[in-house]
Amino acid sequence: MVKIIYQLAIQVFAFLIRLVAPFNHKLKLGVEGRKGLLGRLRASFQAQVAGRPVAWFHAASLGEFEQGRPVMEAYRKAYPGHFILLTFFSPSGYEIRKNYNGADFICYLPIDTPSNAREFVEIVNPRIVFFIKYEFWFNYLRELRRNGSYILSFSSIFRPNQIFFKPYGGFFRGMLGYFDHLFVQNQASVTLLEQAGIQACSIAGDTRFDRVRAIASNARELPEIERFKGDSLCMIAGSVWDADMQVLIPALNGLAGKLKAIIAPHEIKSDEIAGWRSKLNGRSILYSEVAAGQSPADFDYLIINNIGMLSSLYRYGNMAYIGGSFGAGLHNILEAATFGLPIVFGNKSYHRFQEAVDLVEKGGAFAVADVNQLREIMQNWVENPFGASEAGHVSAEYVLSGTGATDLIMQKVKEAIS
Questions:
Q1: 21: pLDDT confidence band, cut at 50, 70 and 90?
Q2: d(Cα 323, Cα 237) in Å, to the nearest integer?
Q3: Distance between CA 253 and CA 99 in Å, rounded?
Q4: Which H helix or E strand runs over 265?
Q5: What confidence score (pLDDT) does residue 393 get?
Q6: For residues 124 and 110, is the Cβ–Cβ distance under 8 A?
Q7: Separation of alpha carbons 396 and 257, rounded Å
Q8: According to DSSP H, which parts of 254-349 are helical?
Q9: How far apart are CA 113 and CA 295, in angstroms?
Q10: Is 208 exposed, middle or buried (0-12, 13-18, 19+ CB in 10 A)?
Q11: Which among 392, 288, 287, 295 is positioned nearest to 336, based on CA atoms?
Q12: pLDDT at 303 over 90
């Protein structure tokens, strides 16, 4: 019965997306990107593969792509003759990384209907499949099992409140049984899986640690950012939403003249950015204006109105505010931590992120409830640089201690397909 409900829900989901797409730019991109996709694949995919073994990596969105990137790059190095397919569910991943040169073919994942899954797997015929973090699609998993593909999941965390572990979650627990191996981030996840009858699981950790270490080692030099910062203390506010800025703006205004800030919105909305600029005490400049030749040196706030720079910006910071935790969920704090920055974020929804919980416990990060708490922490960092540096050292050491997941995953890959 649950299986029938799942199939009906997927059909309803697909219908609703098409219905709403004309009124939602993001959904429209996804609908347009999937239109005729299976036909295009059938016409050209096998010719491009030219008989090479196919390794399929699937990421829900951009964050999962970055999580999977170290494994993709390690796989390419170990098996240069294989063909790498990369799929995305969300436009926020596909539209930004559709030209990523580490994969041979990049496309959307067709909606998980029985016919889509059957045709897609038949065309692609992957030898090995990697689902990154939280992607569990019943029809694809079933077809991959029938196809004889080796199926891996990595960097996931399981919790008791997830449907897999509910008395009524048998159908969803069954999905976990399709995987040949699940690499998880902690022992609690292994324990839950084993209690649910899933033995093919082990701890590898989070591949994002490997990714952010690589980012830190290869971070771009940005002379215009260096000119903006000068000799001032600088906060990097990464992936912020309006809910974050409602707290951050008053805190920054309370430290006017003592601190510069680089603000990178999670989504680029010109009217929202204009509203933020009107509320900030001090002079602000857009990155596009700097790129056009205007000097940033005499400004207090630099607002990044593009996508793709954030990971290289943290090298220029003395402290970081990471957005998202006053809303749906905290964004990536490891990119800041690897550069040795003390970190602060909202306290509403960070508990689902193991690295955030760990760093709060260790003293490298701080969760705040309101403007007053944020202002107090920032004031302390400005007046006590040694204390800020100590917290930053904790962050950097934490990232260093968490690396190595990619190597563990690749050991299993070599056992499975060599």
A1: confident
A2: 7
A3: 40
A4: strand 260-265
A5: 97
A6: no
A7: 28
A8: 270-279, 287-291, 310-313, 334-337
A9: 53
A10: buried
A11: 392
A12: yes
DSSP for residue 104: S
The answer to whether 2-206+404-417 and 220-401 have equal CATH topology is yes
Predicted model pTM: 0.81
How many CA atoms does the CB half-sphere of 313 hold within 13 Å?
27
Among candidate residues 282, 242, 294, the one with its CA nearest the CA of residue 258: 282
Q: Angle, nearest 10°, between helix axes 207-217 and 62-78?
A: 80
Q: Which tokens go with 50? A: 């030219």
pLDDT at 1 over 80: no
Over the chain, what is the mean pLDDT?
94
Tokens of 140: 């694809």
Name the residue type at position 98: K
Q: How many CA atoms lie within 13 A of 73 on its CB side?
A: 13
The predicted pLDDT at position 392 comes to: 97
State how far the Cα of 148 lies from the Cα of 121, in Å rounded to an integer. 11
Rounded to an integer, what distance in angstroms lies between the CA atom of residue 296 and that of residue 287? 9
* Topology classification of domain 220-401: Rossmann fold (3.40.50)
How far, in Å, are 7, 327, 328, 358 from residue 346 at the CA level?
A: 38, 9, 11, 15
Domain locations in the chain as residue ranges: 2-206+404-417, 220-401
Instruction: Round to whole Å and give the CA distance between 395 and 34.
Output: 41
Average pLDDT over residues 41-68: 94
pLDDT at 414 over 80: yes
Provide long-range contacts, Cβ within 8 A and 24+ apart, for 18-26: 26/90, 26/91, 26/92
DSSP string, 81-96: TSEEEEEESSHHHHHH
Cβ proximity of 226 and 290 under 8 Å: no
**What pLDDT, on a 0 to 100 scale, did the predictor assign at position 334?**
95
Which residues are bridge partners to 260 per DSSP?
Answer: 234
Distance CA 190, CA 56 (A): 25
Could you please state the CATH topology (level 3) that the domain comprising 2-206+404-417 is classified under.
Answer: Rossmann fold (3.40.50)
Q: Looking at this protein, which amino acid is placed at residue 216?
A: A
**Which residues, listed in sequence order, are joined to residue 54 by a DSSP beta bridge?**
83
Contacts with 214 (C-beta within 8 Å, 6 or more apart), sequence order: 70
